[in-house]
């Protein structure tokens, strides 16, 4: 695995602003050809740094609704249930799990039915309480500028640098800080696979 350079970070930043931006346009900005940008993006995908390309839908343009931020306090055993239920709900745009184990989400709901909509989402789940806050203004600005990217070795937890290794094992990508960690991981992986 090679360290990300300034060009990689600039490409990531431009794709964060507009994932449909043509590689030729990005190439002009970073002084590379379109195919060279394509190669770098493919390498970033293969390394697991870029996982997917998404769109940011302004739901206000699609249907009426009141923007709300919902904070749900719940016991640890209910977090995954609530997160999956909320994630699959129509109108929910962003879901967060806090360090305290609460689930927060941003959504657009019908003005006259906000309380019943939230209660319906949380029915049959052990919930300690929730709060609904009306949102006056909302801005989502994803950025990769100023961030330090560091991959972690799956074997020992050290940071993967330019001396590191990347391997695809049974279709999954793994990063290692050194060849010996890769060897240990592969040996243990194969042993577990044979015992299964």
UniProtKB/TrEMBL annotation:
Species this protein is from: Halorhabdus tiamatea SARL4B
HTH asnC-type domain span: 4-67
InterPro entries in alphabetical order: ArsR-like_HTH (IPR011991), AsnC-type_HTH_dom (IPR000485), HTH-Siroheme_Decarb (IPR050684), TRASH_dom (IPR011017), TRASH_HVO_1752 (IPR056526), Tscrpt_reg_AsnC-like (IPR019888), WH-like_DNA-bd_sf (IPR036388), WH_DNA-bd_sf (IPR036390)
Entry keyword set: DNA-binding, Transcription, Transcription regulation
Protein name: Transcription regulator protein
Xref: Pfam families: HTH_AsnC-type (PF13404), TRASH_HVO_1752_C (PF24273)
GO molecular function: sequence-specific DNA binding
Domain of life of the organism encoding this protein: Archaea
SMART domains in the cross-refs: HTH_ASNC (SM00344), TRASH (SM00746)
